[in-house]
Design a protein that fits this description.
alpha/beta, Aspartate Aminotransferase, domain 2, Aspartate Aminotransferase, domain 1, 2 domains, seven-stranded mixed beta sheet, five-stranded mixed beta sheet, 14 helices, binds pyridoxal-5'-phosphate
Amino acid sequence: MYQIDTQCVHSSRCPKAAYGSLTTPIFQSATFAHEGLDIASEYSYSRLQNPTRAALENRIAELEGGLDAIAFSSGMAAETTLMNLFESQGHIIAGDDLYGGTLRLFRHISTPAGLRFDFTDTTVLENIRNRLQHDTKAIYVETPSNPTMQVTDIAAVAEIAHTAGALLIVDNTFLSPFFQRPLELGADIVVHSGTKYLGGHNDTLSGFLVMKEQRISDQLRYHAKTVGACLAPFDCFLLERGIKTLAIRLEKQAANAAKIANWLQQRPEVRKVYYIGFPDHPGYAISQRQCSGFGGMLSMELDAPETARRILREVKLFQYAESLGGVDSLITYPMCQTHADVPEEERLKRGINDRFLRISVGIENAADLIEDLRQALEKKQ
Ligand SMILES: Cc1ncc(COP(=O)(O)O)c(C=O)c1O
């Protein structure tokens, strides 16, 4: 088995393409003809499967150390399809610091459909144990979480889940398989917004579910072909192209993020930096065990709402935009973007206030990025 940076470029699970083509051809076909009545071709209809998508799914499964992966048109499409696995019955324990769209799905779509959710701080294992019920079907965590960068111990939660007969589902969007492989730590299903680090260029949406058990894979493929939110062939091509540079992008993004986090920490306008690479981060010891790098994400709490607004107004390299993980550095105002739908009281309890900004560090020069933040912070009114 090759190392992950080699796997990003050469997936051993992708068959050689025709004519020795190094890239997987874009099979832009909705349907596939069969040679005869009893001679079915390998593919039949692109909602079920498509050769370009199959190559991408093989690559993702290999990177995550899974048996199978399914590619969806967005991360939310993947999560919505995933919820069908529970057939509207049972109980799920979920982290309380999740991406706002995931919270919206769980609260406003899956709950009215019949699932029961308990949201809790999953960094505290006792919180999870105390919430287990006779019909707990899954524990759902994001680690690090979005946007306050809480770290949950995947192996420990997997043990709790399995003892209770539940599945552990981990959203691995923030670190990607380059830095963290939850299936190897005991998780049963990995979720991705492939829009982020996997795609890496802010040019397409995508989502993935990665499974390690045949039974779960069969069930999810059944739901995937029924829901039909599959990733289009051209977007599969973009994802595959993005993944080839995942390793070098993430190394640069992580190195840049460490420099920016350290610099921000020295600034008088910055009250707190949320970054998992700080030795005093509560999850630091767990991160050292369960991931091989600290990623390119950080958040910060500023001294005043005006400082947050000044940064958003004055930055030139950083773009004020939702999303994360791409080559361009972005700043997000979670309160009015990614987490706008989270009830105010809950948002404030987690520190997501009008002084809180999230940064997705790109691959630009770190000194230029720091200079951009400095000039924005020091800009006179
Ligand atoms: C951690 C996380 N999971 C899932 C999603 C949803 O993904 P998508 O926007 O591709 O639907 C996002 C989107 O920001 C996210 O940040």
